[in-house]
Amino acid sequence: MATETSKRDITLKSFPEEITNYGVKIYDETSYENQMAVLSHYLHNIGNKETKERKEELILAIRSFLEHKNSRKKATTNNSLTNEELLVLAEAPMQYNLFHDFFNVPFPAPKQPKFTFIDLFAGIGGFRIAFQNLGGKCVYSSEFDAKAQETYFANYGDIPFGDITKESTKSYIPQQFDILCGGFPCQAFSLAGRRLGFKDETRGTLFFEIEAILRKHQPKAFFLENVKGLAIHNKGRTLKTILTHLDNAGYDVVPPQVLNAMDFGVPQHRERIYIIGFRKDLGIDITKFQYPEPKTVGDLRPKFRDVMEEDVPSVKYYLSTVYIETLKRHRAHHEAAGNGFGYEIIDTNGVANAIVVGGMGRERNLIIDHRLKDFTPITRIKGEVNREGIRRMTPREWARLQGFPDNFKIVVADASAYKQFGNSVAIPAIQATAQKELEMLGII
């Protein structure tokens, strides 16, 4: 009844979209991407009551998928199927090759999950890998960046829904799930919100969306991640407000703690604050919750050389002589001004600095790698390729610094890949903490 499809048939393309003030592409409800989010979430959650109640949307999504697929292959296959036949296809997706690429992925959900979770501000799924490794099934994901959606689909077979601030996006969240997880942006709460009263002081922030979902769905627990600076943001008021609102949403919140990724098996100095909470009616004694102890300290701590590319990286990662001189002048200027900012060459026998997005992020983690023999540039550069072996880390090395397995697919250009891994969570630290949370819940 159906023919096998290929990944290029449903590669994300430029459909109706919005451009944020930051230049980030996000797709709206009418876009092909949103329809594919509807379809992918249905295919992976067929037994859910909520998915069965959206048959009209599902049929529309399938027809859109077929139309797009056929237009790329210049075919008319399956165009004449009735609505009932389309639903038969969707209700037994593994029986037909039509939806092959939604399931032929590196990180499928466990067949017999121990618990369910939703993945908010999902990025490229660092939380998802950690929770799937512990037996969890993701029943909803949301991520508004189009390139991150592309990477997410390639690895999990799900296309995340878009802007979580839209009610239409939140309407797809299943009524019941066990854990909410996500790394949300750190935002100050507005004075206007405070004037409206305590209940509304978080309105307009992305934390407000988390709070609203917790209040409505009341999952058993949550796991939130943020930058270390959240603890002192706005003189500590931001974190205090967050904790108070979580308490009022019906959760006992474990005192937040800062953990470092390098203590959990990856050679990266990356500190993040973790916030764990349990629904009050579960009667869990949060004083007994213990964050995971460091696993890799001293001589056990991994070194950057452990995650270096096995083969000689492309010459494009090696800096030009002119750019190196520019970096040196830039650093000297900042040092003269009393700033500690500038490029940095790390010791491959040590740990990397935190990988970050924007600014001089990649230049904070330069390394010396003398393996290159052919210095012929493959891109336009000023000067020539340096002979000192100075190069940037590759996207795969950044992936390894965050604990992503080597079978994680990098399907975007380098610039997007650096951004995605830089914005991601460190999987080993997340997984170690999630295990403690699941133990408290009696799930594992």
TrEMBL record:
This is Cytosine-specific methyltransferase. Its EC number is 2.1.1.37. The active site is at C186. The keyword Transferase applies. Belongs to the class I-like SAM-binding methyltransferase superfamily. C5-methyltransferase family. It holds the Pfam family DNA_methylase. Gene3D superfamilies: 3.90.120.30, Vaccinia Virus protein VP39 (3.40.50.150). It catalyses: a 2'-deoxycytidine in DNA + S-adenosyl-L-methionine = a 5-methyl-2'-deoxycytidine in DNA + S-adenosyl-L-homocysteine + H(+). It comes from the Bacteria. The keyword Transferase applies. One of its GO terms (biological process) is DNA restriction-modification system. It comes from Prevotella intermedia. Keywords: Methyltransferase, Restriction system, S-adenosyl-L-methionine, Transferase. One of its GO terms (molecular function) is DNA (cytosine-5-)-methyltransferase activity. It is an enzyme of class 2 (transferase).
